[in-house]
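hi support,

uploading two proteins for the ticket. first:
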Amino acid sequence: MNGHAVGGKDGLRAVADLGGGTNQIGGRLYNERLILSLIRRGGSLSKAAVARLTGLSAQTVSVIISGLEADGLLLRHSPQRGRVGQPSVPLSLDPEGAFSLGMKLGRRSSDLILMDFTGVVRASLRETYAYPTPERLRAFVDRGCRILASRLSAAQADRIRGLGLAAPFELWSWQPELGAPDPVADAWRDFDIPAAVQEICPWPVHYCNDATAACAAELAFGHHQHVADFLYFFVGSFLGGGIVLNGKLFQGHSGNAGAVGSLPVGDGGQRLIRTASLYVLERELAERGLDPQLLWRSDDWSGLGETLDQWIERSAGSLAVACVAGLAVIDFQAVVIDGAFPEAVRSRLTDAVRERFLRQDRQGLTEAAVIPGSIGPNARAIGAASLPLLAGFSRDPDVLFKERGRAQAAGPSPMATDMDKRTR
């Protein structure tokens, strides 16, 4: 999918609450990352706008931006004339400033993408299977990294920051639902996924849970950046999710916050993962003599007919109950629903969840919007691809996903040397 943009331009109002700055000494790197985040969110900003949004002095902003331009991270556009005073010069992120690879290891398919500094997917590869094996993982990483790197020039390849890897925790679990043989499930139990990938990959490897990565992609690149608190559902082979609070991805002390699949939603404590996951639809298609591989190999689900209709209705009912349960704990502004399905299916499921949610007894709860996600099937891989950029361009490991709080003052720092290390 060359040239697939996952970002959006929301203007100054969307970036105005990302934090301010002071002019004390000691926080230059933080300010650099905050300025990059502001410009990414705004699409393009002038130095005057950056100074206004951060509260930093015009001189401090000018010095930092000049350094970022010199390091190839920002582009200067033609002056905008026709106003009183000096013409405004918009600045935007340079797509060539850095590249990253992102991989989603799934229970039915694996995806590997090449993403530029602005969040545009330059190229992607996909592999489908009945179930994953360690050997298949190694082969896909080895082949895929070489193929995607070959799409870049030598100068561009030098700016690859790393590979982000998103995979389910405990990949060996849920074996009966997957239909994987016992030896395959056992092979994953003691298999160190990030270490195995690092042996093959020539760049640093960053690892996180797949549903968490999808939630991070929505937060960093989605179209709902005005929503500071949301509960996130991602419907894949097995449903997962995430939590965003105060514009920051909340992962919990073990990294497993937002494990929404474990929510009880039916009689007898039936869990959400057993009612609203795609493996349920897959099984029902097979029982009706239809090819379940269509779910992983096609973007057109229009031929699934009544089977898909019934799955959407049942899933919507369970998800509506889960929405109420989530809102009883935290008064989220919104519930975001995305998944590994075509956009038309996402729209239908979101509408059905909203309709069922409004029928629930919500007395005592704050109202929340039920809205569709904006990334889609590539959310896990895109979130994974964000990890190397997060590690390479953020002093605070949460800056790219959090993007709030006060900037710290810019003092003397070896910016050129430091940035050179992170862009090569």
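and the second one:
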Amino acid sequence: MRDHQPQPISLQQARELFAPWADAPAIVLAVSGGPDSVAMMWLAARWRRALKRGPTLHVVTVDHGLRAAAAQEARMVKKLAGELGLPHRTLRWRGDKPSSGVPAAAREARYALLAKAARGAGATHIFTAHTRDDQAETVLMRLSRGSGLTGLCAMAPQTERDGIMLARPLLEIAKADLVATLDKASIGFAVDPSNSDPRFTRPRLRRLMVELAEEGCDAPNLARLAQRLRRADQALQLMAEGAERFLALTGADPRDRRGGWDAQGFAALPAEIQLRLLLRWLDQVGTEGPAELGKAEALLAELTAAIGAASAAVSMAAKPAPARLRRTLAGALVTLERGRLRVEAAPPRRRPGGGCTSS
């Protein structure tokens, strides 16, 4: 395996990285003080200065209140942002912190604060400094949790969150190249000790990556895998949308006021398309979603068995009782009756005292 030789990011590369967002009115840069986000801020400032017209850049640092050094790091970011001519704000995650699941809770709080700041600044986008290394770690993390195809696509270059577009312009850039960029420009950065704390999943995977890379399972290959899976995932999503339209056109029964889908038409679809449609319907009408993949797979197996048993009986000229199934999942009610598959909002559950609850 040939080691990656770090190379500083040039101005031309920066222009190419940020070009898709040149027409945005304003962008929030999420800068923690670490090397990745500091490099992103420095590169974005250079990119913006090279444009005659372009988005207004706003730098935001979130202090989670978990480390004493975080306040000092925020001041460091503010100082550098000022030197680059960029406005800066520090937002704080206030209130009680959870005793477990801290990284996930901090992430949710961070994005909520960033989205609020973006709306206040009139920004349509938030830039985060996720790198190719982060992408590789995400693939491993989701693989270890048994994620499906969509989960293994890892992070998308751009997604919508809380009404704001979350963009990751550095997703194909190696972290080492960003460090080399800062070294060349003589710009300092902070080091978060939690990034090497073995109590957390990502630092443990980071250590494991060193050994995996020796077998060719390195960050470039894992990130490339995520790209290829995303391409396949997008194709399957289009197929699922087409299958849904097909079912709507061919399986309609004007005598059935409750609607639903033709069960035999559904059963004729490939299993992956069936699963995607079922998940989509559950998420559309359910009140407790999103539905867990494993539970949706188990429900699909029950549906397939019930529909298949009815078909087999018909082929043997038997007169079986109509296939019936009634299950709730993620706040949705799934029924199979008289050849129709329906997914509706589940009725409120009855409380022990006779009342009802929607949860």
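thanks. also noticed: The mean pLDDT is 90.
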